[in-house]
Specification:
2 copies of one chain form a homodimer. Chain A has 11 helices and 16 strands. In chain A, the strands form 3 sheets. Chain A has an 8-stranded mixed sheet with strand order 6-10-11-16-15-14-13-12, with helices on both faces. In chain A, strands 1-2-3-5-4 form a 5-stranded mixed β-barrel. Chain A is 29% helix and 26% strand. With 437 residues, chain A is an alpha+beta fold. Chain A has helices at residues 60-64, 114-119, 121-124, 128-150, 189-197, 237-267, 283-292, 306-320, 371-380, 389-393, 409-416, and strands at residues 11-24, 28-35, 38-45, 71-80, 89-100, 154-155, 161-162, 174-177, 180-184, 202-210, 223-232, 280-282, 324-328, 351-356, 359-366, 402-408. In chain A, helix 7 crosses helix 8 (306-320). The interface between A and B is large, with 100 and 100 residues.
Chain lengths: 437, 437
């Protein structure tokens, strides 16, 4: 790998990668070779004949014909030279083999539109910035998983094919399933709650979720990676928030340690490990704060809107110097039937949204585990308990108090790296009009 | 957690869990309390009045009414006593709170059929054996991921919604997708190959895959967790097999270290860490060996059948004392168009199946990365290159030599624990007639 070259002494090396750029000059040829770990300069002085004319020998002729993106393997003399801008090393070529020649016309350029870049995502992903995004995602996820493993969580793979809706019946994808219909899971909600009834205690899952959402915002996709956790024996949603904080601190700590410098160099962003505890503000209070800043949330219900989230995030950053804020105690009217309501106030729920740099990345809550209360809340929301049949069974044979959260992985990355859209940080984005590549 | 009690000194403790059994005797009541970490005996001597008659006081009355499965929180005096069979400790009850009472009639018993147990999977999963399966799965996966992370792999989340088939057009689930149709990914094959063209180098994914397979065997599901890896710059499928071996050794080593004793106690199975290298036998030779053992594979094509796999596995176990065997060099006629064929023999492929305890758990191969050869092989297989459009593009702009494998997670667990069906080791099995719970 190219990143390992700098540690080697001068001598013969063989490396492989793709052609980033070719400078085919009269007396010398330069090739920048790239792999997933970095880039290195290859140099090939041209041979001249007795009259000083350039000779068409190898590898010069092959280099002259090299299309950008071609994958090659080269052998040559590694030389450390401080004057070489690219890492202080270069390789003087002895031989070059073209593994696959790219066609010369590349369909996208640095200034292509996002949509055009997504059409050619595999070329777009060759950019060091794009590659870094997915190495960051890998590091972030592994830090979360390591936390979970160290704390005795069980990893779930819940089914994505369901007999009925897991959230609202709107935004549901229907699948032809032999002689019947199946639906794609909108979240692992029901099944991670089932794990509580099964006595699994603490569970997590990182997997796809599907929403037939026709919207085209920068924050929505029809398929996204959902980061989920659910734990038994909580006293309230406060326990869930504490878990959530610790996970994010673990994730950001790992990303900063492994990629902090690269993120600063390529994205101009300083990764900040959040301090604990994250600020917590009840939603009603947050709306008052936003109002006092001159913004009235234009909604008929009790919810926030995206501008309100940006405003409260700005307030929290100014007041507490924090990029995260838990908005708590959402109104029962705008939360699903399975959110628990505190004993002393049936109008609110033991729930929260987590806002990061002005955008919601997660919803968490204590779940209602008492079958009679749960059934009543379902009916109140206009649901038919018959249709929830299998789900309600989970609560009839004993279940501990429990709660958890679901978090959009791409949203975390988008906001961490100050990107404008989750499309930039999703390997292959899926939207209402995008199913390819 | 119950597993932590043994390390505590005698004194007051509070624990939570569900009721496993109640023995309501005349002079004393015993309750076995269970949580995800273990079980502990609770004891409550009955109070008697001056005449020696039992008094109906608390918590005695509550205990008499306790249904199995009810989740309770108890406080009492922990006492170490070697005579107590269950871990040498018991808790003398002071108080008991019922968190959720289970309904008294449990719909399944220890001898219920597998299908009935799956109907009530959340109760079935309360058994220590079932719980252990998913803790093993967690440990196994984390060991694989840790190997990948330490070796600079990038984790992918490839889309499960696709515009066309990723494998054969048979066994494809169709989804209503706004004004068009989408298909559920049968594997991440195309997208992990795309990562090679994108210069990601080494990638892995653990995620769902979908097959509209109407069969009811013990090895098939319509949705399963696929463990996938793909690496650049290989010389042949030998490099893929070496990666595959190292991953399995890492996984089995972790499982044996963390759960070996429990597996022996609950499943009667000794977890064996496989030695490297695993035996490798070309398929044609394997068929000769099987034949010499008196079994003729009853197939018209060049493939093995399940009995043939069991026979060759028995041979390998007898000959090499190994539970794994790579069957290599499968005929081109029975492999997908994207498997590479060696230069000197176009009738076979640079591919393998991995057999574990007599059953196939994985297919791996070097992929054909030369666009002209790849296109010719697709046409030879009766595919229309037009329909493969986006996939073939990945090879037109340069791509390194590469290969990888896909492995069924449930099959590994089934064979590791000597279970009869993947249904036992899948959190929620999905088959042609099973979409619930």
């Amino acid at each position: 790998m190219i990143k390992n070259l700098a540690a080697l002494s001068n001598g013969t090396v063989t490396v492989s990668g793709w052609v980033d750029t070719v400078r085919d000059q009269k007396k010398v040829q330069f090739v920048v070779l790239r792999d997933e770990s970095g880039a290195v300069q290859l140099v090939n002085p041209r041979t001249t004949d007795a009259d000083g004319a350039v000779v068409a020998d190898e590898p010069a002729t092959t280099i002259s014909a090299l299309a950008q993106g071609s994958f090659i393997t080269v052998t040559g003399e590694l030389k450390h030279d401080e004057r070489v801008k690219l890492g202080g090393i270069e390789i003087k070529l002895a031989s070059l083999t073209v593994v696959t020649a790219a066609i010369p016309e590349t369909p996208i350029a640095a200034d292509s539109s996002l949509d055009k870049r997504l059409d050619w995502r595999f070329l777009d992903l060759r950019q060091p910035k794009q590659n870094l995004i997915f190495r960051i995602q890998t590091t972030f996820e592994h830090a979360l998983r390591t936390y979970w493993i160290e704390h005795d969580f069980i990893e779930l793979h819940t089914p994505k094919l369901m007999a009925s809706a897991s959230e609202s019946r709107a935004e549901l994808f229907e699948v032809d399933y032999f002689d019947t219909k199946a639906y794609l899971a909108q979240s692992p909600q029901f099944f991670k709650q089932m794990a509580q009834s099964a006595g699994f205690g603490k569970v997590f899952e990182v997997g796809p979720a599907f929403r037939a959402d026709p919207s085209f915002t920068s924050r929505h996709a029809t398929e996204f990676t959902s980061v989920d956790a659910e734990i038994s024996w909580i006293d309230s949603h406060e326990d869930v928030m504490q878990l959530h904080e610790e996970l994010l601190v673990a994730g950001f700590t790992a990303v900063k340690a492994k990629h902090g410098e690269e993120v600063l160099a390529l994205f101009g962003v300083e990764v900040t490990v959040p301090t604990q505890p994250f600020p917590r503000i009840p939603l009603a209070e947050a709306k008052e704060i936003v109002k006092s800043r001159g913004y009235e949330v234009p909604r008929d219900d009790d919810d926030m809107d995206p501008e309100g989230e940006r405003q409260i995030a700005a307030y929290v950053l100014e007041t507490y110097g924090h990029e995260f804020v838990f908005l708590t105690d959402y109104a029962a009217s705008i939360r699903p039937f399975y959110h628990m309501r505190p004993e002393n106030d049936q109008t609110i729920t033991n729930s929260y949204d987590l806002i990061f740099n002005g955008t919601e990345i997660s919803t968490g809550a204590q779940r209602e585990h008492r079958i009679d209360v749960l059934t009543a809340q379902a009916i109140e929301k206009g649901l038919d308990p018959e249709e929830l049949g299998g789900y309600l069974d989970f609560f009839r044979y004993g279940v501990p108090a429990h709660g958890g959260f679901g978090m959009g992985l791409a949203r975390v990355l988008m906001l961490m790296l100050h990107q404008a859209s989750i499309r930039e940080v999703t390997y292959l984005f899926r939207g209402p009009t995008r199913l390819e590549p």
